[in-house]
Hints:
Elements: E1 2-9, H1 13-24, E2 29-32, H2 39-42, H3 54-57, H4 73-87, E3 91-92, E4 95-103, E5 106-113, E6 118-128, E7 149-150, E8 163-167, H5 171-183, E9 186-190, H6 205-213, E10 217-220, E11 224-228, E12 232-237, E13 240-245, E14 248-251, H7 260-265, E15 290-292, H8 307-310, H9 313-321
Parallel strand pairs: 1-2, 1-6, 2-3, 6-15, 7-14, 8-9, 8-14, 9-10
Antiparallel strand pairs: 4-5, 5-6, 11-12, 12-13
Amino acid sequence: MNFVDVVVIGAGPCGLAAAISAMRAGLSVSVIDKGPVVSTIVHYPTYATFFSTAEKLSVGGLPFILADTKPTRKEALAYYRGVVRHFGIPVRQFETVVAIEGHAPQLVIRSRRRSGVERATRCRAVIVATGYFGTPNLLGVPGEALPHVSHVYHEAHEAFEQDAVVVGGGNSAAEAALDLWRTGARVTLVHFGREWDKRIKPWVLPDVTNRMREGSIGAAWESRVVEIRPEVVVVTGPDGIQEIPADHVYLLTGFAPDTALLQATGVTIDPTTGIPHHDPATFETNVRGVYMVGVLVAGYDANQVFIENGRFHGDRIVAHLTGSGRVGEVLVSADPDS
């Protein structure tokens, strides 16, 4: 069983930033992720462009240099790979944390590799940065698990000259509908609301609105999916029950915070907001030595925390761990049993 001062669970941008903060403070670190580095970005649409500028996506002070102002998915992946190598962050990829045991300052992180090999890592503190991806907001309707149904959207080529139904009313749904239409799919959008969500990107809204107005993209507003069949989506709305042809179905209804690990560790989750109980000044949960960063802090309201502000959470945690300003116990890089 190996020992480090801090284990970071999740190798997304906020988790990497927290690891960098800890390493700069002289703490030993291990980062564990069930997938690859920045796995959420890996699952973004293939040709996605970020809303944020490169400067706001950078971590650790390492410049994110671009020829243009808005980074693409491919450029972001390259940047974060560079971050790992530049700072020498010890990342254990494709290793799933199954339990956090014990009490600070002697916690045990139990994990399992894809091969089935199990590992145990002792640490003084753990930072959970598991984010949202992987826990989609399910519709809970028959047919949701059919093979032509997906909760993520990658690219439109597969739907060329086929019927595609996009469910959702946010940026992801709007951009997917436009991409599908431009690639030659017959697209219908289904949304339970009367109009698009209020946070639609300003350059996307007029484009998708015009496509719907001219009939290039169909729309079923104030409608809900009640069943998904192999070739149709059944919805109910103002015009009653209707069947919409569908060779591909994209359920872009967002994700819920992945709090299962925190709950199993004893962290209290607010049932209304989905926010884990924590000290907003230090991000320490009600379980001593267990911290969190990134979108987990916002609960169900994912629009409160992004890479832009979540990348700084680790600084406050490390200040608490190292006793900067005399906040909490000082951690030193030493094995407690040595």
